Amino acid sequence: MLANFLIGLREGLEASLVVGILIAYLIKIGRRDVLRRIWFGVGLAALLSLAIGALLTFGAYGLSFQAQELIGGSLSIIATAFVTWMIFWMLRTARNLSGHLRQDVDKHLSGAGWGLVLVAFLAVGREGIETALFIWAAVQATGSTTFPLLGAALGILAALVLGYFIYRGIVRINLTKFFTYTGLFLIVVAAGVLAYGVHDLQEAGALPGLHSLAFDVSNVIPPDSWYGTLLRGTVNFTPATTWLQAIAWLLYVIPVLAVFLVSTRRHAQNLKRQTPAATPLSTEGAR
Predict the structure, then answer these.
(1) What is the Cα–Cα distance from 253 to 159, expressed in whole angstroms?
(2) In this predicted model, what pLDDT tens digit does every residue of 207-222 receive, in sequence order?
(3) Cα–Cα distance between 218 and 44 in angstroms, integer?
(4) I need a surface site. Which of 29, 73, 108, 140 has the fewest CB within 10 A?
(5) Is 212 helix (H, G, I), strand (E, B) or coil?
(6) In 3D, which of 34, 57, 12 has the Cα closest to residue 116?
(7) Sorting pLDDT into bands at 50, 70 and 90, what band is 104?
(8) Would you state the pLDDT for residue 215?
(9) Residue 277 has pLDDT above 50, yes or no
(10) Is the pLDDT score of 82 beyond 70?
(11) Cα–Cα distance for residue pair 40/20, rounded to 1 Å
(12) pTM for this one?
């Protein structure tokens, strides 16, 4: 539940900041008349995310066990790739996000401004698709539907409230630290989703080594115990892990974590060298 809460919080906050920047810029340049275009694009992105979530949830019904495991394993690996890309994308572009969005608005502001629908749809839709895919993978990994969905919903709700407070200037947070710390945790979560995807592919017969276990601590950490459920729900830990799962987990988490830490340090050093400026994600000017 915690992992899904953080996914919902992080993705929801990114989307909220994007929408806040778009609205603030349009208000600042006196184009309130096209604000509906932004909300229309946001609505379309939300519908697309829900549709993808429904397709992932109900689309595999009626298929054989092998086909379901094959699809589930493949989508878990895709979800890992999406989240990894999202973590590094935000780290790389957060400082210039406001400038990029304003350029997109200027390009699509001619006439009635219908191009803004596409701007909002693409900006918010990316977050929604990533959220739907990763939460679905988490639901499959934990074997539970209620808690992952509840955690994600609470995270998105908290993100909307926090995003509004930031937009109004009521709350100020260090977004760099927020995305850094959540990025570190999500790398570990993504590694667990990847390992689960590998296990699904092993059960489907697409990968070997299903019965070759690296370790089995089921006696110490029973899968149905509260702490076993907690570990599975946060970092997708399985007491009985195959060698291929363990290798995939290590081959992912070690290099990705190393690159993330190096990139974070380099980013911090670059910020120190630059002249202090207003936060790039600020929505100042809308009030």
Answers:
(1) 27
(2) 999 999 999 998 998 8
(3) 45
(4) 29
(5) coil
(6) 34
(7) confident
(8) 92
(9) no
(10) yes
(11) 14
(12) 0.77
> CA triplet 224, 215, 184: central angle to 5 degrees?
75
Q: In sequence order, which residues have a C-beta less than 8 Å from that of residue 77 and are 6 or more positions away?
A: 194, 197, 198
Cross-strand pairs, 240: 216
First to last CA, the chain: 36
The pLDDT score that the predictor gives to residue 234 is 67
Site of tokens 């890992």: 80
CA dist., res. 103 & res. 119, Å (int): 10
In eight-state DSSP terms, residue 284 is T
**H helix or E strand, kind and range, residue 179:** helix 175-203
> What local confidence, expressed as pLDDT, does residue 206 receive?
94
CA distances from 248 to 154, 192, 227, 265 (A): 31, 9, 24, 26
For residue 212, count CB atoms less than 10 angstroms from its CB and return exposed for 0-12, middle for 13-18, buried for 19 or more.
exposed
- pLDDT of 87 above 90: no
Given a cut of 70, whether residue 236 has pLDDT beyond it is yes
Q: Where are the domains of the chain?
A: 2-273
As to burial, measured by CB atoms within 10 angstroms (0-12 exposed, 13-18 middle, 19+ buried), residue 280 is middle
